[in-house]
Amino acid sequence: MRRPLSIMRADPVAGTVDFLYKIVGHGLTLLSRRKTGDRVSVLGPIGQPFRPRPERPRALLVGGGVGIPPMVFLAERLAADTATPWQPLVLMGSEVPFPFDLVDAGSHFHLPSAASSALSEMEALGVPSRLASRAGLAGCYDGFVPSLAEEWLSGLDAKGLAETEIFACGPTPMLAATAEVARRLELPCQVSLEEYMACAVGGCAGCTVAVRTPDGVAMKRVCVDGPVFDAEAVFPPAA
After folding, report:
1. How many independent structural domains does the chain possess?
2. CA 100 → CA 117, 168, 237, distances in Å?
3. Which of 39, 50, 69, 152 is the least buried, fewest Cβ under 10 Å from its Cβ?
4. What is each CA distance from 89 to 63, 115, 190, in whole angstroms?
5. Which of 65, 74, 63 is nearest to 22 (CA)?
6. Which residues, other chains included, contact 239 with Cβ-Cβ below 8 Å and sequence gap of 6+?
7. What is the pTM of this model?
8. Is residue 40 in some structural domain?
9. Which residues are within 8 A (CB) of 234 and not within 5 positions of it... i.e. 6 or more apart?
C-alpha cells in the first residue's frame, strides 16, 4: 500500500519535490533505501490545501513531528507571495532532534527566552521560527508546541489577534490541543489531519473522519475532502 507523505517543498523550475519522513515500518524502510536514479510510483498532489486569508496576514504555523513538512511548504509559499503582506511565524515541536540546520533566532517575539533556536532556512527567508520539545533539546521551549503557540498569542493585543489565523499539522492530540487554544482565543484554525490512506482517491472510504457540517455530523474522506479541515468542525468543544 502507498504511504501518505506531506510535500515539504516543490520547485516547478527545477522540477523537484521534496519529502521529509520518519522511517517507521516496513514500507518507509524500503523507501529509505531508494537511491538516485531509482523509480518510485507517486500519486499526487491530492486533497484540499490550506487556504490563508489575506485579511488575517499573521499566519501562525504550528507543526509537530511528521506534521512539520507542510509548515515549511506553507511558510515558503507565503514568503514568496509579495502581493500580500503576510507575517508568518513557524512553531515546530519534536521529541527527536530536528532534521534541519538550526541557528540563533534573529527575530524577537513575546516568547520564552529558552526558545532561542530557529530554522536556518526560515531565517534566510525572513520568516521567524521557534522550536519546542520535551526531550531537553538545546534552544527549545520545554513543553508542547501548542503551549508555545499560546504563549506567543497571549502577547498580542486585540488588533493582533484579529489579524491572526492558525494553521496546524501533526499528531491528533497536538491538533486537538491547538484547536482548543484557537477556540479559547476565538481564532480561526485550519488543521491538516494525519490518516492512513488505502486508495487516496476517495473510493475505499478507509480514511474517513467525523466532521460537523451545517446539516449535522458527516463522515468525510481525508484523502479528497481533506486533509485540511476547519479545526472547529473536527475538534468540537468537549461536552
Report:
1. 1
2. 11, 19, 35
3. 39
4. 11, 13, 15
5. 65
6. none
7. 0.94
8. no
9. 175, 179, 191, 193, 209, 210, 211, 212
CATH of the domain at 65: 3.40.50.80
Q: What is the mean pLDDT of each run of 10 residues along the chain (239 residues)?
A: 88 93 90 94 92 97 94 96 95 93 81 85 93 93 95 94 98 96 97 89 91 94 95 88
C-alpha distances in angstroms, 225 versus 43, 176, 207, 220?
A: 16, 19, 10, 6
**Distance (Å, whole) CA 193 – CA 205:** 15
Question: Torsions phi, psi of 99, nearest 5?
Answer: -85, 45
Q: Could you tell me which of 194, 197, 151, 154 has the C-alpha nearest to residue 174?
A: 194
Q: Note whether residue 1 is domain-resident.
A: no
Q: Where are the alpha helices (DSSP H) in the chain?
A: 25-32, 68-80, 120-125, 145-153, 158-162, 172-184, 231-234
Residue 173 to residue 23: CA distance in whole angstroms: 21
Q: Where are the beta strands (DSSP E) in the chain?
A: 7-11, 16-19, 58-64, 89-93, 102-104, 117-119, 129-133, 141-142, 164-169, 189-192, 208-213, 216-221, 228-230
Residue 197: inside a domain, yes or no? Answer: yes
Segments forming the whole domain that contains residue 96: 7-35+49-234
- The pLDDT assigned to 18 comes to 94
> Grid coordinates representing 5?
507523505
| Residue 92 resides in a domain | yes
* pLDDT score recorded for residue 239: 61
pLDDT at residue 1, as a whole number: 74
Retrieve residue 109's grid coordinates: 517575539
Classify 237 as helix, strand or coil.
coil
